[in-house]
Amino acid sequence: MSKPHSPIVIRESQPDDITDIQRIYAHHVQNGTASFEEVAPDTEAMAVRRQAVLELGAPYIVAERDGVVHGYAYATGFRPRSAYRYTVENSIYVEPQATGMGIGSKLLSTLIERCTDLGYRQMIAVIGGSQNLASINLHKRHGFEPAGQLNATGYKFGAWVDTVIMQRALGPGDDSLPD
């Protein structure tokens, strides 16, 4: 009889997680359109990216089970101009053998909660590929609504790829002015 898995734990990412984070991201770069990068960055580049998120005070979290990271998520500023300071963009990546286990949902709900607690008012999802129904449906389940589609904005694997933009309010959204 096989040993049952322990529950999935969502926690703050640590520097030691970079190898797993890079492995998960590399799979998506090399095999899908969730990222428009075509060459997977190495662990050093991923560590620099993680640090930049943390320096902004934004969340960078991982989903761990039995001591292994199976997914990660983070928020970054949506655009660099100051007027966008209450809007974040999310990124979520789950390793392929762990899809369908609710990891993406747990990561996204935690990210939404943390960004709301930080005072952000809007969250944007920029999804690579209008055929990326797993990501589109995940975001719909968490209250995101379609905000637009940019057709043929990426070119990867010999084909044009659309960009789907989804959005949801955080906390009071635009019902009141920020502090």
Reconstruct the topology from this structure.
Blueprint: E1 9-12, H1 18-31, H2 43-55, E2 60-65, E3 68-77, E4 87-94, H3 103-117, E5 122-128, H4 133-141, E6 145-156, E7 159-169
Parallel strand pairs: 4-5
Antiparallel strand pairs: 1-2, 2-3, 3-4, 5-7, 6-7
Helix pairs in contact: 1-2
Helix amount: 25-40%
Structural class comes to alpha+beta
Which whole number gives the mean pLDDT? Answer: 95
What is the string of helix and strand elements?
A: EHHEEEHEHEE
Write down how many β-strands occur, each being a DSSP E stretch of 2 or more residues. 7
Low-pLDDT residue intervals, each spanning 5 or more residues: none
Task: Give a quick account of the main beta sheet: strands, pairing sense, barrel closure.
Answer: 7 strands, mixed
